[in-house]
């Protein structure tokens, strides 16, 4: 353990800092880092270098080279820079490289040097040029802040949803500020800048002067400033050699340190661990690295090469031409276990395990000591936690073996934390590998980043096999894990233009099959975006959902194929969508010919035209010589469009002609009858007044009867051959509605009723006229006599008739109408008749 703590450096009495090597860089840089624009993404992200920038006069004629490396120095991309002068580089939260040009245009590149998009920071920036720029991260996304040649600031807090904000002017600012940075307070981005001994805070509304509390006197200029990873703390380096540390609100001072160096540092970044009480800042000069905090002493390192600092959530990455190192505060669990002469439970358990491997009895002594103090559970937890903070696999294994050894002596220690740590460390060690180059730490970066984001970053690096192995190892749901990664792989596969469409489609289908959560339409859309239309069509053949196939086929201008797919799906809404698209795309003749080859589509389009485009429907019927439907169309049109009787009759005549051509004589005759009825109704309106037009034949007869025009009604019935039964019903109903009982009685005696006389009884009772109803009961036939008597309420006589008929059904019907109080004698009479019938 003494050897293990050799690289620990104390900062004050309560914290140790250590620096260990992540990778030995093998990137063969031809120039110093100081001669390049450098950008390194957080969370162990990639490194971008722009070689031979325009600021280097001796290479002004050489075209710059943009190179992208993993954190281990493995090359990811290299391309000649063919655009304008670049002022600043930076990485977005999605690991996209933002290149801010002098003219205010920001070019966005992918991890492998593929151009994504570009956007401008506005006309004012274009006119005044860019002096300096910063890429910063907020909870909304990644932002860009610009300092123009007019010494004005413009920023956008989210490049994904670009909204430019022109910051207020700083009074009296005639030259570039000595230093500036972006702050995020209350979910709003601000600019903090130094002009001589003064600090100014710019928000969207105003420019305000601010003063750090407790700043040492004699400051005439601020040379450097740094904001912590979480935007909670601020560090200021003054020309007096003092480093002021406090909150970003500039209301609280944490500490101040005199480094006795007045030369401006190359870089200054925060190095602190979340939830730690220690706050430290790392300052880098040409050949010196200093860690300062709330302690009278500092930690100093000698830099053998030009180095670059990358702030992280729980430390600082430091890379140079030859090495990549990580500097951070030693976690509490590691400190308690490994510090010299430690008697912490975890330290004793680690020693006990080592002695056990040596088969020494000291193992039992250490275990007894821990158990007597009741700290064995704590010891196991300390070893598990410390294993997560270790970068070297051998130390991880040693601590986990100690934890596993201690668990054997505990009855109810939950295994979840131990198993989860083993899984997480295996994943971390896999991505930390030199060939992968993502040096994540466990406690904060891995947990902060989440496994889903880590998988996304592996996919961005096209490390599909490793990503799939991690998903299978962690047993992630297929939709969130393997399926999603295979879909990304397929989208990358379609971009390989040196492979034939047939081979690519076959390879994708063999690999994906029916994997749940994979959309072939999304892959086909990517293929179409790459200019491989035929490949996209082949991939769509594997897509089981027609609703996903059709929109892309329409986008690819394969409308007829889209129509076939929509019809196969049986989804009428989908078919309508394609039909409307085809209608706008094709001329009228080609559109109709396409419909003729698709009967289902033609039928659906006719349904659409019935409600939306009647003239088009007429053209369709004419083209198909469909005289039957054409006749029906003219009949509907005669009532929908024509108001004049002449126009309506003309339309009906056209319909009749169409029906004759269709050899539908019944429809033709019915149409001619309707024409005759319309002409007659117009004549009746002219002669009698009132409203007759558009009434049905029955309603016309009824209206005439109600108006007292019985002879005209009878004549109309003869002209249109209305059957006697129907005419009697019409007249009976009309006279009853008029309550013309005398005329109704005359009508009943005019001749023998073809409908019988029970309807007379029913109609009278419907009008609540029992007196008139009784007049017709005697004329009702024997088979309906009982029902008629019951309708008028003569239960006793109905019983006599039923007994006379000896009809069981009639007897039961009468019995159901008997009430206990008034018809008791009648009921007894029926029961006796039944009894006598049964005896016989």
TrEMBL record:
Domain Vps16 C-terminal: 518-836
Vps16 N-terminal domain boundaries: 4-420
Membrane topology: Peripheral membrane protein
Stored Pfam families: Vps16_C, Vps16_N
Classification via InterPro entries: VPS16, Vps16_C, Vps16_C_sf, Vps16_N
UniProtKB keywords: Coiled coil, Endosome, Lysosome, Membrane, Protein transport, Transport
Cellular localization per UniProt: Late endosome membrane; Lysosome membrane
Any coiled-coil regions, as ranges: 349-376
Protein transport is among the record's keywords: yes
Family note: Belongs to the VPS16 family.
Function: Plays a role in vesicle-mediated protein trafficking to lysosomal compartments including the endocytic membrane transport and autophagic pathways. Believed to act as a core component of the putative HOPS and CORVET endosomal tethering complexes.
The protein's name: Vacuolar protein sorting-associated protein 16 homolog
Protein encoded by which gene: VPS16
């Amino acid at each position: 353990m003494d050897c293990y703590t050799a690289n620990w450096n104390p900062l004050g009495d309560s914290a140790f800092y250590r620096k260990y090597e992540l990778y030995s860089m093998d990137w063969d840089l031809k120039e110093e880092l100081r001669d390049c624009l450098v950008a390194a993404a957080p969370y162990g992200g990639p490194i971008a270098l722009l070689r031979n920038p325009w600021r280097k006069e001796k290479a002004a004629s050489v075209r710059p080279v943009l190179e992208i490396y993993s954190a281990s120095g493995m090359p990811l991309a290299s391309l000649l820079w063919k655009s304008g002068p670049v002022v600043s580089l930076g990485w977005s939260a999605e690991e996209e490289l933002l290149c801010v040009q002098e003219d205010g245009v920001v070019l966005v590149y992918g991890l492998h040097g593929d151009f994504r998009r570009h956007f401008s920071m506005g006309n004012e920036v274009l006119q005044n040029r860019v002096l300096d720029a910063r890429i910063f991260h907020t909870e909304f996304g990644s932002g860009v802040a610009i300092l123009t040649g007019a010494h004005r600031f413009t920023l956008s807090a989210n490049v994904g949803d670009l909204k430019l904000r022109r910051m207020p002017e700083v009074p009296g600012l005639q030259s570039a500020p000595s230093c500036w940075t972006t702050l995020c307070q209350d979910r709003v981005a601000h600019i903090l800048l130094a002009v001589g001994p003064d600090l100014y805070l710019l928000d969207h509304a105003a420019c305000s002067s601010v003063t750090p509390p407790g700043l040492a006197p004699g400051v005439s200029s601020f040379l450097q400033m740094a904001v912590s990873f979480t935007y909670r703390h601020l560090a200021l380096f003054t020309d007096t050699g003092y480093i002021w540390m406090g909150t970003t609100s500039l209301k609280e001072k944490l500490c101040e340190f005199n480094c006795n160096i007045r030369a401006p540092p190359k870089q200054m970044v925060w190095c602190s661990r979340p939830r730690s009480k220690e706050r430290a800042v790392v300052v880098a000069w040409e050949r010196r690295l200093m860690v300062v905090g709330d302690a009278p002493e500092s930690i100093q390192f000698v830099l053998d090469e030009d180095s670059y600092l990358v702030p992280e959530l729980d430390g600082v990455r430091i890379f140079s031409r030859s090495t990549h190192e990580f500097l951070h505060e030693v976690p509490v669990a590691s400190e308690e276990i490994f510090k010299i002469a430690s008697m912490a439970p975890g330290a004793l358990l680690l020693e006990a395990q080592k002695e056990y491997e040596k088969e020494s009895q000291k193992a039992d002594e250490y275990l007894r000591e821990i158990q007597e103090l009741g700290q064995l559970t704590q010891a196991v937890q300390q070893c598990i936690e410390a294993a997560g903070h270790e970068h070297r696999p051998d130390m991880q294994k040693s601590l986990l073996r100690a934890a596993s050894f201690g668990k054997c002596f505990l009855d109810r220690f939950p295994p979840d934390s131990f198993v989860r740590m083993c899984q997480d460390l295996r994943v971390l060690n896999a991505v930390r590998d030199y060939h992968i180059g993502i040096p994540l730490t466990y406690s904060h970066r891995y947990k902060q980043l989440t496994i889903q984001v880590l998988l996304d970053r592996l996919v961005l690096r096209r490390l599909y096999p490793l990503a799939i192995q991690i998903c299978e190892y962690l047993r992630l749901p297929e939709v969130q894990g393997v399926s999603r990664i295979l879909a990304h792989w397929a989208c990358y596969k379609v971009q390989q233009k040196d492979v034939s469409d047939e081979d690519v489609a076959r390879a994708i289908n063999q690999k994906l099959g029916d994997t749940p959560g994979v959309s072939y339409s999304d892959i086909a859309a990517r293929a179409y975006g790459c200019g491989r239309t035929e490949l996209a069509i082949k991939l769509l053949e594997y897509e089981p959902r027609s609703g996903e196939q059709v929109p892309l086929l329409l986008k690819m201008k394969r409308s007829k194929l889209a129509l076939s797919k929509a019809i196969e799906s049986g989804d009428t809404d989908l078919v309508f969508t394609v039909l409307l698209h085809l209608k706008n795309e094709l001329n009228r003749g080609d559109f109709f010919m396409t419909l003729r080859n698709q009967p289902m589509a033609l039928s659906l389009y006719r349904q659409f035209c019935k409600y939306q485009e009647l003239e088009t429907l007429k053209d369709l019927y004419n083209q198909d010589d469909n005289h039957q439907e054409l006749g029906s169309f003219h009949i509907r049109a005669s009532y929908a469009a024509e108001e004049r009787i002449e126009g309506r009759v003309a339309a009906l005549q056209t319909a009749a002609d169409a029906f004759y051509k269709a050899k539908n004589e019944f429809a033709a005759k019915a149409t001619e009858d309707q024409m005759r009825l319309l002409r007659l109704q117009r004549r009746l309106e002219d002669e009698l007044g009132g409203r007759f037009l558009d009434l049905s034949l029955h309603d016309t007869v009824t209206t005439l009867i109600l108006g007292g025009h019985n002879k005209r009604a009878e004549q109309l019935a003869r002209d249109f051959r209305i059957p006697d039964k129907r005419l009697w019903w019409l007249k009976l109903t009309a006279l009853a509605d008029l309550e013309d009982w005398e005329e109704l009685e005359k009508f009943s005696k005019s001749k023998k009723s073809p409908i019988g006389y029970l309807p007379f009884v029913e109609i009278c009772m419907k009008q609540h006229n029992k007196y008139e109803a009784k007049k017709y009961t005697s004329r009702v036939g024997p088979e309906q006599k009982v029902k008629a008597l019951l309708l008028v309420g003569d239960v006793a006589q109905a019983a006599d008739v039923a007994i006379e008929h000896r009809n069981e059904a009639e007897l039961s019907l009468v019995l159901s109408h008997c009430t206990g109080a008034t018809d008791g004698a009648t009921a007894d009479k029926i029961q006796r008749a039944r009894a006598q019938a049964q005896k016989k």
